[in-house]
Amino acid sequence: MATVLETHKPLKEEIFDALHRQIIAGKYAPGDWLRQEDIASQMGVSMTPVREAFDLLVAKGIAERVPYRGVRVREMNPKEVVEAYGLRLTLEAIIAREAAMNITPEQISALKKIMAEMDKQVELSEMPNQRQLSREFHAAIAEASGNALLIQLYTIVSNAFPDWLLYEALYRKPELVENSVTQTHDEHTAILNALKKGDADLAVKVSLEHVMESGRWLETYLNVPAKLLREQEKQVLHLMKKK
Q1: Per CATH, domain 11-73 is 1.20.1250.20
Q2: Secondary structure of the chain: what % helix, strand, coil (to 5)?
Q3: N or C: which end of the chain has fewer CB within 10 A?
Q4: pLDDT at 2
């Protein structure tokens, strides 16, 4: 790993970004150990910022800390993925409804800025940036709900959802990048337009469709059982119809 810490971010964030890119690119697979000493040596830095970068990876759900062993790229079995998917569907729907009723013009502008930045990230090498911006987009919608507890829950659930593995699939199938970027843009635009209109039902509908598209990726590229994913979708859609 070359020393590529060239921006003005804090060093721990630079190291986090570098490791994040490499995990998404498949250099480190789920279950691989991240060796603090090796990474510090390869990057030409001390172990302290590497340890802090590990903390960020753990906090964002990409890595896990194993007592007395160290830090490794997070592994998830199909049951855990499906559970996280179901919770993500539920919270996205609730948040979309609340945000449509409470979002401010300033928050709409902030979402537009995030989307504008996402539109610049179209190359395979830029997919880690695309992922980070997409997470910011959804976190900003959660903030727009105005519900502090809902925001906290969303942070927990979004970190549990293995979206980095979906981006890793793009490195295995780079021919999918263009369509993936276009589809994400279109789906985010639909969500933004529903929020601008204050149309809660439409916001719920397009938000669920957006997350369910990730469900199809889980099925196709991560071999998560389709039956389990459809069961989660059916439960959430049934719940939303009762509201």
Answers
A1: no
A2: 75, 5, 20
A3: C
A4: 45
